[in-house]
Amino acid sequence: MRAVILEKVILFLIAFAVIVVWRSSWYLVTTTSLDDSVLLSQQPPPPLLQDPTFPQTRDKKTKQPRSDDPLFVLHIGPPKTATTTIQCGLHHLSQSLADEGFYFVGKTCPQYGSVMVNNETGVAGHHLLMGLNGGNVHTRGYIGLKERMDYHRENHQNMIYSNEGFAHHLEDKNVTWQSLQSLFRGWKVRIVIGYRHYFEWIRSLYYQQYLNPKKYKRNWPGQGKGLEHPSFLWYLEYHLHSFETGQLSVDGGHYAPAFGHHLSLSTYKKFAPHFTDIRFFNLYEEGDVVTNFVCNMLLQAPHTCETLHAQVDADNQITTLSTNDTETGTAHGLVKRMSKSFDAQRIAEAVYKQGMIESTIPKPAVVKLIEQRIQETQLNTDTKFLSCPSPSLEERFWNASVTFEREILALSHPDWTQDKLTEAQNAHRVMFETSISEGKFCEIDPLVVLQDEKWVEFLSKVGRQSIANETEGT
Fold first, then answer.
1. What percentage of the chain reaches a pLDDT higher than 90?
2. Is CATH 3.30.1490 what the domain over 71-196+248-315 is classified as, yes or no?
3. Which of 141, 257, 300, 303 falls between 20 and 30 A from 224, CA-CA?
């Protein structure tokens, strides 16, 4: 009996050993075959042109980007730093950039529409910022950008997105940064911030802030939600006082504009704790804006850069930023945007407050007549009617402008010698004094206009003439 049992045990062990050997052989052969097929089907894509400023390895503890991660360039303005010019230039160049593995996804140029020749559609910036600020990853803008980012990351392609709302509408709170960092997982990220001298930037910002809102444009002060246009000198004094007393808002969120601060600097301070590669794009560097942006900020697009340089050398018609706040250009069909004063609006509002115009008369019609009169009489060149910064206000203005530049240059060019810094400051000073001498910060004083007999006579008839014009138009 025991012999039978022993025989069965021996047979079982032999059978078990045979099965183990067979399974091991099958596993080895199958695994080798699978590995070979995977290697053959997943050949690595062509290497990206590496930017030497990025680390070549990923630190397992710090989770820093790997050298082979694609690059995402996020251009965040701020407003009035040639943002629209840059966006239109990138839109126009989108196919050339795509040929080099760099995909532009907006913000698209208004005159070109939302569809680009690189087969991308502009990302809805407003909805994207709403999602980031609320930690909501289900908004149309967030989903739209994330889908394109996932696609291009899988294909090892670089991307660029330009939206100045990140400078003054992105709220500085944990949920926002968590959403943003999640969005950028698997990417090297470069933040690009435009820089313009404070004395030019603040003047341009003033016009943009009060240009479009209906409460300033259509309704008379006190009519509905209508408000009165502040003067630029009041606006400047308000900002300088905030700067001098330290009443600054670095956040720049929806309800906390950076009064008293240069928005380029406050934007840097907002992003610096969360991103390591932050670059200032200086609008005063030699050359045109679009070429400088492509060549200096998008190092992975050398052929597009070379083409732009060749165009500039050939016809010198690429967009440049002029000191009178004009953005012009013909080579890329770029925008031409002229800042305008609020002289006519402020005169109309003063006349209304004096009771010389009825509230039933449309404000835009009155403003149009006054604008025509200003052009005919060249009122804005007559120093008798102008209000300009006082010498003390000029000095405070200059002090703020040069203080901001020193801080920005220290961040953007820490290796500059003192001679180089002095050269930049001298050029800054020359531009400031030129703007002063040309009356760039002067404006018509409505109260002085109302003391002039000829203008009073004209303004007393403006209401009736506006009604007559409205009647003829119908």
1. 60
2. no
3. 257
